[in-house]
What we know:
By secondary structure, the protein is mostly helical. Helices cover 76% and strands 0% of the residues. The protein has eleven helices and no strands. The protein has helices spanning 14-22, 25-46, 48-54, 64-79, 84-127, 134-145, 147-156, 162-171, 176-186, 188-199, 207-233. Helix 4 (64-79) packs across helix 5 (84-127) and helix 7 (147-156) packs parallel to helix 9. The N and C termini lie far apart (72 Å).
Amino acid sequence: MLDPVPVxxxxxxxxxxxxxxxxxxxxxxxxxxxxxxxxxxAMLLLEPQRLxxxxxxxxxxxxxxxxxxxxxxxxxxxxxxxxxxxxxLAAGALFGSQAGLAAALAGxxxxxxxxxMLGRVLGQDALRTLVRGRWLRAADGQLSRHGFRSMLAxxxxxxVPFAAANxxxxxxxxxxxxxxxxxxxxxxxxxxxxVVAGSEASSPTSPAFLVAMGFIVLTGAGxxxxxxRRRHRLGV
Length: 236
C-alpha cells in the first residue's frame, strides 16, 4: 500500500512577503520614527514661530475663519514638536483671550488626537514588547486601568512633555475618547494662562498679565517639586 503523498503548499509570492514585511510591527514603528523626524526637521527649517510672531495676513486677521485656520495650524505644529507655550502666547496675541483660548484648545485636542492615532496605529504593537522597566510598567498599568484620570492629571500639571504623554497613552490600552476628553479638560487652566499672558503682553503690569504669569510660575514649580519627590521616593 502506497503512503500518501504529502501536500506541499506553495510558497507565498514576493508581493505577499513584501506586504507582510511592510505591515510588521517594527516596519510600522520605523515609519512612525521617520514621520516624526521629518516633522521635527520641517519645524527646524521652516521656523513656524517666526510666522506666528509676525501675525496673520491681513485678509485672515479676524473672524471665525482665521480662528479655525490657526487651530488647524496649531494641531499640525504640535505634532511637529513646536512648543505649545509659544503657540498659546501667539493665540492670545492674535485673537485675544476668548477666541485665542478656543483656537488653542481646539488645536491642542487636534494635535493630541493625531499623535495618539499615529502612535496607536504605527507604534503600539512594537513598543509594547519593550515595556519592561519599572517606570514603564507602572505608567502602562496606570494609563491602561485609569486612563481618564491619569491623563487628566498629566495635562493639569505641566511637568510631563505634551508629546511624551501622547505617545505613552497611545502605547497603553487607553481608549481614544477618554484620552481626548481628558486632554481637552486638563489643558484648560495652563492653556488659558498662556493665552491671557499673550493677550496682555503689551500691558505687563496689568492684573490679568500678572495673575497669568503667577499661575504659570506656580504650576511649573509645583510640577518640578512633584517630579523631584517621585524620583527621590523611587531612589532614582
